[in-house]
Amino acid sequence: MSDSSKVIATKVLSENISLYLRMVIYFCLETCLIKSEQHNFDRSMNMPKYNELIKVRSLSNRSETNSVVDLVKDKETGILYVRKTIFGVDQPVYQGIFTRELQALQRLNYCENIVKIIGHSNMIVTNNNTKSRDKVGCIFLEYVSGETLSNIDVVGLTSKQKFKIIKQLLSSIEMAHNEGIIHRDINPNNIMIDDNQDIKVIDFGICKIKQMINSATVFQMGTSLYSAPEVNLHSQNATEQSDLYSIGAVMYYLFTGEQPPIATIFQETLDNTYGFDIELRPIIRKLVASNPIERYKDISELRGDLTSVFKRFLDVQYTAVITMDHEKFIKLKKMNLIPKTSIIKDLDLIISRNYLEIYMGQQDNVYKFLGTNYCLECLYDEGTNVFLVAKIKKVVPLERAFMKKKFCEISARINLPDPKTIHRLSRNDNLEIKNIVDEFCEHYRSKDNVNIEYKKNYGAWRDLLTLTKKSIEDNVQRFLYDSYDTKGNICRFKLHKGVFLGDIVFNKETRLVYEKKSKKNNKTTLIYVGNYDDDSLVDKHVILKIRILQKPVFLPPKGFICLDYGEEIINIDRQLEALDNIERENYSCQHNLKEIISGISSPKIGPLYGKIKFFNERLDSSQKAAVEKALRSESLAIIQGPPGTGKTNVIIEIIRQILKINSSYPGLPEKKILLVSQSHPAVDKMLDDLIQQSQSRPNLIRVGRDEKLNDEIREEFGMNYVKDNWIKNVKNKCNELAQNYCEELKVTYAEFESYYREYEKKFVSNIEPENINEKEIVKFKVKINTQKKEKICKILEIQKQWIDRLQQCEEAELYIIKNTTIIAGTCTGFISKRVLRDTTFDYVIVDEAAKATYPELAVSFSKAERIILVGDHKQLPPVLDLDIIEENEEKLDKKDFVEGLFEKLYNNFPEENRHRLSIQYRMHPVIGSLISRVFYENEIQNGIPGKERITGIPGYDDVSIEWITTSKMPELKRKEEKIGNDEKATYKNSSEISIIKSKLHELDLLSTKVVKVGVITAYRGQKSAIKEMVKQQKFNYIQVEIDTVDAFQGGQKEIIIYSTVRSSNTNGIGFLKSEARLNVSLSRAQSLLIIVGDLNFLNNTKITGNKFPDIIEYIKETKGCKITEVGENL
Length: 1130
Known about the structure:
By secondary structure, the chain is α/β, with parallel strands linked by helices. It is globular, with a radius of gyration of 36 Å.
């Protein structure tokens, strides 16, 4: 460790422990976290090649920033864009310029008075002058039709036009400052005036971004006459006050038409210049003071002095009269929204500074006055015609920009008079203002019927979740106990006589809780007791043993314990909160997600797009098109992946393309990805494939309870394991640092630890002084008898304290999350980590999205700027609690839940935002063609030759589909058996079980290698019976897995045996009518599909929705299929 580093560390660490904590965490993250793979500079960034756009004309050429700006046109669409090219970006200074402008524009893309970025790319182009190949950075911007302020006759502008320019300039630069961005080059060349006389601030190439650490220095690159004197000395001197100087210089130019003088004589020249309003001169004078301290503190303070000027020169049609009680006035002070020294008689002037422009909204008869820094929520008093302040809410720039879209702009001034003098006011336009706002809000709410359509499509979900939550709370199984006692870590509950555990299957992971009700609000809190250990029957009482895993809890002598249902309730509450966020439009997506999913508006795509260099060269054209559409979408894209079409490969390619963007622009914040699916196995399968296809270890974390995760994934990427490894590395780094410090103290680390053990006892309340070894402390203190050594010792003490509490440090977890690119979890489970609840992601990718309910999807929707849904609505749908729907038929209509969100969006989206993968690689062509014909309108092609899907089992070389029919068996023998009562009834078919048993032995006998066989059925009863049968068999080669269709989605086996079960003299086929379930069942087979069941019974075209006649027709007419009949002598 260098001497300079130690001096810095000593200074910082001696101040306080939290600064030390942050420094160590940051240092260790930089050295311990493994970064994602790096890619070469010149890889395509999914933008057009340099020569793929037609150059219309050159707009500017700035030698100081080594850049040119051209107006270009898209060859296909004819749309105009502005392309800024920065040459030499392999040099730090120009790479810094490129990165700064890119990062600034991305942060400010929501600001209407700042030019919008459309895309960016690193490229290699031929320099026309030198003919050499140069590395360049290209930024693609919206084309603003108009002129720069420098090319406009400013003298000919009206006063109103000039003040409008100033007002919009202040608004845009204030937003930049609030984002930590200092422009550093505000001048007339960088202010565009469009055809509507609105401004667009451009060129953030030499801006300063406070949070950005960049070694590249842009020295004296600003436009000197408009740059503050400190910036002319060195650009790193720039502060917000430097931009204020430039604004003053622009105002001088705007009102005189002359270039500003140099800083040393600016104020003197201003005093002798005419053409200014008398109120404006002192304002500009303060702005251009040579000493930054003498300038305005910020734009908010400047705006306050401009209030009266704006009122005079900008049209103010109305006067809004507002009253505020003293309590609200005090609250404004406490919220630091007005100066602490403010007095109530100055309130009118103070408040008006917040309202240079007024936007108003209304909801539930609350009128909201949106200002620059805060919003006043008011009630309208009809008797006095006054708005009464009911609530004050602070607003940040991003929130304000979002609220402005929904609010009505009112050309008005705010008047806050003494309530006693309201009747004497000469002007009060509140009634007119109220009517304007009411009319606007009514129009906004009815605009395209967004809310009506949203509630029509998704409103029922809230009711279902609420009823589900109540059902869980009401129906949880509770056990009345008479007494309990605790011995060691086992708590024994003696249940009340006659209370039994019932049919519940208990295991060591079964959690039990005590319900504690609050006397104040009757709210129930679940107190975790422990996990099930054992049970027994003693003197007609069940003794329930619970293993205590945490601190013992104190319960009433008698009462109830129950199964832990807290996780289910939390899961529902998360979904309800997500619905609230979507309904209130409180989400990260910059486009109107609510309108898009309601079908009111369509998702947009990026206007610029070029060829992608794909990582996986084996992707087919359909898969490549899916990747392109997903990356091109600006809000939401949807990919349908029929069975075997490689949707996992598509998702991985999308992820790797996003990671390429991160590695190509190391100076920019990394694009974060949230990868979720409806189930834990699906998430882990996705991660397994991603890891295998990545060139190096992906920078990812898997979120979820440890017991739910795949072992390999958990131990490599599980949050707890990553944190533990990180802490271990941190401790090692700290120990190395401590050893170095001990060497300076000329003591051993063991001596320090001995001292510290005694020293810390002084701060433990229950340790008596005689138990502290003062000699050990004094002995060590003698060795650190200089001021420098005392400081080093203090550092060691702080470090030791911090290491001891590191395991419980949430800040460490936050830093790990912040520095991780990919977070993976289930649709609702990923926010179980508190640090993730406030995290937003650039991309959310949802696998198996068609299986998720709308509320489950909404949880991740609210966290995403861009959403990519991947799934197949023709496979398994979301699982619904039909019992609750049927029990509450007066409140719920089953029709509202039939069509899932995925299917709804896929059917309504434009082609640019949806895609169906069209080539399958899983199944033998004979099986693949069956699936394509019956379920996908013959749209799915076969991508794998039949010879690669031959089982090698004699008798099946030329057969890929076999139907073993029981139709010729006696009715009583082939008929299914009903198991259970009507509500929970299931079925089994003994004849089919016998056929399957015989077929399994036949396959095993004829096999010469290991063959994986899956047996699928739609019924639990049949599944259990087949499992029991297989347990009693012995096979040499075949490996058999038996399950219901629900468990098989996403899986595949070389051979699939499908048991239909149903056979009767009625038209009822139950689950077999489900097209999606049948599709999944038949499409799991790679080489051989065997269907067992009553062919004649199922070949019934009179049954609505029955797909079996189509399947049977295909089998009868297709080569490679056969029908085998079994008779009575099976």
